Amino acid sequence: MRAPATSANLGSGFDVFGAALERPADIVRVERAEETTIEMSGAGSEFIPEDPAKNTAGAVAEALDAPARIKIDKGVRPASGLGSSAASAAGAALALNELYDRGLSRSELVPIAAEGEALVSGEAHQDNVAPALLGGFTIVAEDGVTQVDSSVPLVVCLPDIVVSTRDARRVVPESTSVENMVDTVGRAATLTVGMHREDPAMVGRGMEDNVVTPARAKLIDGYDAVREAALDAGATGVTVSGAGPGVIAACYESDRSEIAGAMLDAFDDVDVDSRAYQTRIGDGPTVYR
Ligand SMILES: Nc1ncnc2c1ncn2[C@@H]1O[C@H](COP(=O)(O)OP(=O)(O)OP(=O)(O)O)[C@@H](O)[C@H]1O
Ligand SMILES: N[C@@H](CCO)C(=O)O
């Protein structure tokens, strides 16, 4: 099972919007077992507990009552803002659903995969697991999840800084002005139509946000300079990916490589190592048998 990285929020859609990324991804393998065991390898795996009670894939095995030997090769570093915890949870949910013939649809697996998010961040938010399972652009609302296929080009730059979702949720303001609310609704609507039309300019305009992103940007050394550099290189919009520290830019494909270079250089200027993924909005998990 290949389960994609995802980017939640996209600026104006805090806890609502999410997008599957074409790359990077986790590889999740499962075999039936008497009790669940987990083996981790790959990017940042040394920081991820193999105890099933502390691993998002273990929480999913428990929720599905599907004990298994689970092996996860991380393509998505933890505490990245790229839905690392969600990729393993979504991959495990789909793989275990097949292994045990549970017959649940990908949509029905979204709340089950969110049990893994509850384990690591304290809240079962679905804005990473929904796109990780369904692919494309997703809107998580009280009454369900809406999915739209899209393939807007993106650059995601991941600095060598750790920001945990739990910590980044603490800095979110508890209230805001009506002015900010009106601005956010306008941008969220623009972004949604932009995804449907696959219009990078509209998606970029909709990625701004005056409420959550400014508070979180302070946790990321060099954020303002990286954002400016990406915009100067042609990005149509830039924001914090998920809870950070990843920074995501929407763009036209022809500008992607220059934007990636500009973001890497800007982090380098403040002595922060980083890596850039030239990617796009992609599909959900791929199942290998
Ligand atoms: N299978 C797993 N994969 C990744 N992280 C895991 C896993 N199981 C438990 N964790 C823990 O979850 C935390 C990482 O999750 P967190 O939500 O902070 O980051 P993220 O998923 O990369 O970010 P975001 O949700 O903002 O996109 C780490 O503390 C890590 O040890
Ligand atoms: N919406 C969540 C996503 C992070 O997992 C947040 O920004 O806290």
From TrEMBL:
Any Pfam family hit: GHMP_kinases_C
EC number: 2.7.1.39
Enzyme class: transferase
Gene Ontology biological-process entries: threonine biosynthetic process
Lineage: Archaea, Methanobacteriati, Methanobacteriota, Stenosarchaea group, Halobacteria
Family the UniProt entry places it in: Belongs to the GHMP kinase family. Homoserine kinase subfamily.
Domain GHMP kinase N-terminal, first and last residues per copy: 56-136
Record key words, sorted: Amino-acid biosynthesis, ATP-binding, Cytoplasm, Kinase, Nucleotide-binding, Threonine biosynthesis, Transferase
Location relative to the cell: Cytoplasm
Location, primary (coarse class): cytoplasm
Annotated residues for binding of ATP: R77, P78, A79, S80, G81, L82, G83, S84, S85, A86, A87
Protein name: Homoserine kinase
Pathway terms, separated by semicolons: Amino-acid biosynthesis; L-threonine biosynthesis; L-threonine from L-aspartate: step 4/5
Molecular function GO labels: ATP binding; homoserine kinase activity
Any one GO CC term of the record: cytoplasm
